[in-house]
Amino acid sequence: MTKPLTILDIARLAGVGKSTVSRVLNNDARVKDSTRVKVQAVIDQYGFLPSKSARAMRAQRSGVVGVIVAKLSSNSENTALTGLLNTLYAKGYDAAIMESQFSQLKAQAHLDVLKRRNVDGIIFFGFSGCDLSALAPFAPNCVVLAVDSDDYSSVSYDNQGAVTQVMAHFYEQARHPIAFLGIDEQDETTGRARANAYLSFCETHQLPVHLHRCEMSLHAAYDATTSLIGPHTQAILCASDTLALGVAKRLQTLGREDIAIGGIGNHDMLRFMFPRAVSVELGYHQAGQHAADLLLKQLDDDAPVISHWTQPCHLVTP
């Protein structure tokens, strides 16, 4: 008995990808007319019929993607959210947006709701200490944003590269010693990864270490600034632009314009208030777009694979 053709066979015969064949079968308006005619001709020639399971899966599509952010008030998450929503909307999907507030319990409750709503997939903004195993019921149609994951597709930021770029900039300008203001190391990315990158650079370049931690707030950074300033301090690198704003304000009140300021995040407010400060553009918007693209690819593929992406960053100088 001749083995029935699969979508992959049709794709090869038509010279297109599996996702394109799926779109033709689903009468997706995104397919070009010329491509649709070519694929349909192959389908008609071989009398191809999609499997019952494949038809059932497509029939169950809701056209909705669940998006769980950690904090809606976060500038970085809002920027990433804009990027991913633009991508989803352009492909005809709607989004159900929820906020975990850095709570595993809230995240689990939201996932339970989204499962009952039969969403097509999940984009989850990770946070320190979150239990990603809760995403298992949605695998493989889920993408984790902001943290790495071995079990699911993920999009993360280049924390080490961001710190290294600012440190290298100050070092090349002979602005050292360089102090570092971070946050609690229990935070895996902004807290631990960025502090470790600072320590690594200091070790490699034989620079003295002057690291201080505080809460993630303008006021905490403002108050911590005096602890960062030594007799020979030439620059202060902050683990985020929020901290950099607080430090820059305190240095301004002290009349210490001789100390350079660096941040991470390329926040509009830092550039506006302290145009001489340097920062790193982490690519939040692009990361959101990439997360959405990854999920859409998984939804279209018959055999989706786990993939990981580290969003490139770049230094922004006055």
**Domain module count:** 3
User: What is the helix tally?
Assistant: 12
Low-confidence stretches: none
* Spatial extent as radius of gyration: 24 Å
* Helix percentage range: 40-55%
**Strand order in the largest sheet:** 2-1-3-4-5-11
The class by helix and strand makeup works out as: alpha/beta
What is the CATH C level class of the largest domain, in words? Alpha Beta
* Apparent shape: elongated
Write the element-wise H/E pattern from the N-terminal end onward. Answer: HHHHEHEHEEEHEHEHEHEHEHEE
Q: Give the name of the CATH architecture of the largest domain.
A: 3-Layer(aba) Sandwich
Strand content: 15-25%
Mean pLDDT score: 90
Quaternary organisation of the protein chains: single chain
Please give the largest β-sheet.
6 strands, parallel
CATH superfamily of the largest domain: Response regulator
- CATH topology-level fold name of the largest domain: Rossmann fold
Question: Can you lay out the helices and strands and say which pair or pack?
Answer:
Layout: H1 7-14, H2 18-25, H3 33-46, H4 52-59, E1 64-69, H5 75-90, E2 94-99, H6 104-116, E3 121-125, E4 142-145, E5 153-157, H7 159-172, E6 178-182, H8 188-204, E7 210-213, H9 218-228, E8 235-238, H10 241-254, E9 260-262, H11 268-273, E10 279-281, H12 284-300, E11 308-311, E12 314-316
Parallel strand pairs: 1-2, 1-3, 3-4, 4-5, 5-11, 6-7, 6-8, 8-9
Antiparallel strand pairs: 10-12
Helix pairs in contact: 1-2, 1-3, 5-12, 7-8, 9-10
